[in-house]
Amino acid sequence: MKIRFGYVSHAISLWDASPAKTLTFTRYQQLSPEERVEKLLEVTKQNLNHTLRMLYYNLAHELELYRMSSSIVPLATHSEVNWDFVTPFRTEWLEIGKLVKKKKLRVSFHPNQFTLFTSPQTKITENAVVDMRYHYRMFEAMGLEQEGLINIHIGGAYGDKQKTLPRFHQNLTTLPSPIKQVMTLENDDKTYNAEETLAACEKESIPLVFDYHHHMANLSEAALEELLPRIFRTWEHRPHLIPKVHISSPKNEKEFRSHADFVDPEFIMPFLKMVREIGIDIDFMIEAKAKDQAALKLIEDLSKLRGYKRISGGAVEVK
Prior knowledge:
CATH class: Alpha Beta
Low-confidence stretches: none
Radius of gyration: 20 Å
CATH topology: TIM Barrel
Number of domains: 1
Number of helices: 11
């Protein structure tokens, strides 16, 4: 059994390398038409360059998983901006995509919590489709629309899960089929637990990205030992990919839902034992605050344990 590791968006070990530098709409409005174009191009180019820096950093450390920033393109989905962020950077987008393909890296996006399909308001669903199109368009620009995944949560309950879940399935029909083919769902820490999210995934033939920290904050009625085989089977819809799990640990008992800087191996050990018994390869996306440093430290910590052997900079073998 092999576990690969990755992190989210920004390798904090690198100096001034954020791939999510921003341009607010307020600032955008203050600029002249010429300055607006210039600033959009400047910030996007910097974010693309920094994304490439992340990938080379990951390759140097043999980290094969990476979640790209959703903020690579400033104001990409703003209705009053709506600009072509692909054409000026065709070379840069394709350079990123070619590197991902050549080195067989696993990449994904995770839109923010406002990208949901449970709202009774049509406008919110329409905005969710716009945001999913934006993420898919970035994958298309990179030539990765068949490789990348876009992960979201089910959304809010609006006071009645029994009414909201059917609305989720209905609203999801507005999402273009090619985009739905690359989406995943994740259980959350307050509303839809792993069991409820799993039911939605099974109904829609969508893989479930299981979040262990969220699960511990929002337990299911069924035991995790019963759910895991079903969760992993949802990945059979994407046979070229192995299951992916989000890993983090609580900041403290009082702030249990908040992510700590690093991952406490003791917190995830019960889950590791379950996965070990199932015996399948799995990918861990580390969501700790220390990002790349947390991923590398967890690999090091686990490799010191009996039965865990580090087999590369970014992976361990479990016996």
